[in-house]
Amino acid sequence: MAVKRLAVELYTEERRAQLGSAVDDLALRARDLPRVRDAVLFLAKDVDLAWRLFALALVAEALDD
Asked: Which of 12, 20, 42, 44 falls between 20 and 30 A from 30, CA-CA?
């Protein structure tokens, strides 16, 4: 529930577009790392999932502190 709430609170079209661009950039950088590239391409196909995973990472980071 916290992850979904955070994802909604942080969401803007601009931030989502920035995440999409960052995932695309990462795909280029990972071209010589097949497993990483495959994972990044998977996320590139579903930017909504990438956004939720970003929110999950932020919650995990906060819990670690």
From this structure: 12
Q: In whole angstroms, what is the distance from residue 1 CA to residue 5 CA?
A: 6
pLDDT digits (tens, 9 = 90+) for 19-54: 999 999 999 999 999 999 999 999 999 989 999 999
Which of 41, 17, 46 lies closest to 30 in space, CA to CA? 41
* CA–CA gap between residue 57 and residue 63 (Å, rounded): 10
Q: How many CB atoms lie within 10 A of CB 3?
A: 16
The residues, ordered by sequence, that sit 6+ positions from 58 with a Cβ below 8 Å of its Cβ are 6, 10
In the block, tokens 């989502």 appear at: 16
Question: Is there a contact between 49 and 43 (Cβ–Cβ < 8 Å)?
Answer: yes
pTM for the whole structure: 0.80
